[in-house]
Every structure is written in structure tokens, then in C-alpha cells.
């Protein structure tokens, strides 16, 4: 028997995280029954988004432009704090706390030699360029302090130490977000109030 | 600030049932990070599926063809049982029990005058045509017994009585699936074993 379009829809919806066969089936029926228009718009946005969204040239945040919203926001380029996160989800978690108005750098991972993730995969030479700026070029704003907001894992620690060395050789202060994030917990799951405390209580690294 | 493509993705993913802002965000990041290829295929399938999947001319099951897989399956057209369900999800639930090898008729709802759902919206004239066949035309197989597999709601009961009248005037026997489905429960949530019992123990309506 040939695979029907409906079967294909149900199968492919399972590429979404947390979506198994039952949920995928419910989604497909729901779209067909009630949301043809909205589902079609979603399909177009997904196709365009997945083709066009890349990484910000400066901070590796997701954007379809050369530079992201944050890197081109003049209120934020005047701020000399740079928060380093493992993922864009973590960036969003820090943003949602409302307690940070500096810029970011997104590693998209952590050092993990076993998985073949080294300094290059994390864009650390790009980070070095960001930190090397003396602020004379307005397109390369000054960074005076790096705030590490990495997960408290073994890889996160190793990555923190590696970045600390880059900061030292560029005379940039380095801190880490404070206790408040449960060890073993996931940064992106933290509530905004805990995240605020962690940002306020940051310590010398 | 202009809406970014990523924001559009997160917003539009919420047209999926059970997907709120947090889940939509996680889905968007997951696709961007790990599933660009699969996500793009999903987008194409959704666009095609939502444009092309319509209702089977005979049973109103979802299909991109004129007739669905079930209506064109010769093993099933030889079977003179016709199971009437409210939705394609309910059809799938009966199929998964593995205890039914007849055909279906999908109402896509229940009689509900307040919501403007009358016999026409449920395709009951189409059902009447199916039941009127004397089996001499191989493209219109004979139906000897209708099995009602509607939810035990007020609307389900009203609809059952309406269909019973159509069956009587066409000399088609009518039964309903047996106890086993909890009253007030949703048919599509029933486990396959309960569904099997309900089909086996069907009674004269
Ligand atoms: Zn940026
Ligand atoms: Zn059919």
C-alpha cells in the first residue's frame, strides 16, 4: 500500500520534540479539520525560517539578518556587559528575567572533545574578536565584563575555564551568575525570579 | 520592532493543539538546531497535505484521492458492515482495535442545531446513497448492517436515532457498539482492548 499524504503528515510531525505517533495524529486531524489556513501559513513560515534563519555574525544568536535585534539595539551596544550562554533557549531565559540589558554570545554547545566539540565549534575565535575590541569602532562595542551563564555541568565548567583564559588575555573582567540555579537542573527551566537573583548575585570567577 | 522570522515561527507553531508559547519556542529552537532538513520536509508535506487532502467521495474519510484506501480495498468492499463514526480520529481508534474489517462512514460531527450542524453538514444524504445500494454496481458495495460507533453524548444519541430511521427505510440492520466505553469518555481515548470488546458485544439498536 502506498503511503498517503495523511500518513506522511503524521510521520513527519514527529520530528517535533515531544511529539509521538498519537500526538502527531491528533495534530494532523486538528489541522485538517479546523486549521487549514493557519497550518498552511505555519508551513510557509517553517520553510522560509529553516532556510533563512542563520546565526548573528557578532553573537551567534538566531536571526535571518546579518546582525540580530540585540546586537543592533543602541541601548544594548552602550552596555559593556556580555553574557555568554550555551544556547538560544538560555539566551531567551535570561532575556525573560528582564534583569539584563547587555549583549550576548551564544556558544551553541559546550566543549566536549568526545563529541568533537572544540573551540572552533563554539565560535571562540569570534568571541575573541568581540572581546578584543577597544570600542573605537562603533560597530564593535566595548566589552568590560563577561558574565558566564553556562549550565553547571562538567562540560560547562571546562568551557568556563577556557573562556576565562580568553578574558584574561583581553583584560576583560569575568563573572558567573550566582547560586540559585540548582546544580543538575537545566538553565532554560529556571523561573524568572531565580534567574534574576542569579544575575544580581554574580561573583568573580 | 519588526517581527523576526523566529518570532513568527514560534507564534504560528501555536496553531498546533496543545502547543503553548513555551513548547512552541522549544520546537522552533529544536528544528533550527537539529532538524533543518526534517523540518523543511515537514513544511512541504503540511503545505501539500492541507491543500490536497479532502474527503473520500464515499465515506468522508480523509484522502487526497477520490476514494480512500479503505473504500478501494477489495477485502473491505466484500464486507457488508458499515461502521459510522463522528471523526477520523474515531475511525483510527476502531481500525487500531484490529477487530473490524468492514467500511466506514465519517460524520465529521454530530447533529447540533444550536451550532448549525444538521443532516447536510454530516453528509447524511451521502450516507443514504451508500445504504440504498443493492450491490449490483461493484463501485457501490452492499451494506447489510450499520454499526453505530458514536460517542454516548446527547448529540450522539440524537444522531443515532436519526441514522436509525435512514437504516430502517433502507432495510439495513443497525447495531451499536457495546458497553465498555465509559459514558462521558472520549471514544478516541479508549484502549484497543476496550474497543475490541465494544465491537464484539454490539447490540440491536
Ligand atoms: Zn547578535
Ligand atoms: Zn472512503
UniProtKB/TrEMBL annotation, chains A, B:
**UniProt keyword DNA damage present:** yes
- Report the superkingdom from the record: Bacteria
Q: Keyword set for this entry?
A: DNA damage, DNA recombination, DNA repair, Metal-binding, Zinc, Zinc-finger
CDD domains in alphabetical order: TOPRIM_recR
The GO terms this record gives for MF are: DNA binding; zinc ion binding
Gene3D superfamilies the UniProt entry points to? 3.40.1360.10, 6.10.250.240, RecR Domain 1 (1.10.8.420)
Q: Does the keyword DNA repair apply?
A: yes
- Residues in C4-type zinc fingers run 56-71
GO BP annotation list = DNA recombination; DNA repair
Toprim domain: residues covered: 80-182
Tell me which PANTHER family the record gives: RECOMBINATION PROTEIN RECR
Q: What does this protein do?
A: May play a role in DNA repair. It seems to be involved in an RecBC-independent recombinational process of DNA repair. It may act with RecF and RecO.
Give the family this protein belongs to, as stated in its UniProt record.
Belongs to the RecR family.
What name appears for this protein in its UniProt entry? Recombination protein RecR
